[in-house]
Amino acid sequence: MWTDANRLCGIGLVYLSDTKAQSNSNNGAAPQWARIDNGCWGYGNGGTQHSVEAHELAHTLGSVMGGAPHATSAGHCYDESDTMCYADGGGKAMQQVCAPNLEYLLDCDNDDYYSTYPDPGSWLDTHWNVARLAVPARRRRRRRRRHGRHPDEGSGRSCRSTTRRCRVWRPRRR
């Protein structure tokens, strides 16, 4: 949420659970929020400065767990440059691993909190990985019927009007 206040720059809620399971609290099992005060709205130039909004949103998705390879004790990382890494007083010296103009990236080295293809056996393969977030798929809602026909009729879906259930029609492979 954006707040019309100047007490903080930003803060985001993260649950300290690094379990790989989809039941992880960071996967939408419990409410989460982020706050950005007006002094930091829109901060970040897309190059050498990270977006405060993106940073706090990444916290609400489960970034950065304390057991991650480059985690600080304050919930960030120290292998620059990306959205979640900065000198936060968490007891670790910063290391420049990626180019300084990549502050807008999520996990520039793909080893602390986000990787779509983690190496087998790596920390992100065996622990919570923000890229595995399943909330959007689980919360999809069905569209309502309008004017006597289902909105998906004629769109490659097979619908039964009595149950309002649809299944995607896919052509057979030859």
What does this structure look like?
With 174 residues, the protein is mainly beta. The protein has two domains: 1-140, no CATH class; 142-174, no CATH class. It has three helices and seven strands. It has helices spanning 52-60, 123-126, 135-138; strands at 2-3, 10-12, 34-37, 79-80, 95-96, 157-160, 165-168. The chain has a three-stranded mixed beta sheet with strand order 1-3-2, covered by helices on one side. The longest helix is centred in the N-terminal third of the chain and has 9 residues, at 52-60. The protein is globular and about 50 Å long. The protein starts with a strand and ends in a 6-residue tail after the last strand. Mean pLDDT is 79; it is low at 136-141 and 148-170.
Largest sheet: 3 strands, mixed
**Which structural class do you get from the secondary structure elements?**
mainly beta
Provide the domain count: 2
Count of distinct strands: 7
Helical segment count: 3
What is the oligomeric state here?
Answer: single chain
- In sequence order, what are the helices and strands, one letter per element? EEEHEEHHEE
Protein name: Peptidase M12B domain-containing protein
Region (Disordered): 137-174
Biased composition (Basic residues): 137-149, 162-174
Organism: Angustibacter aerolatus
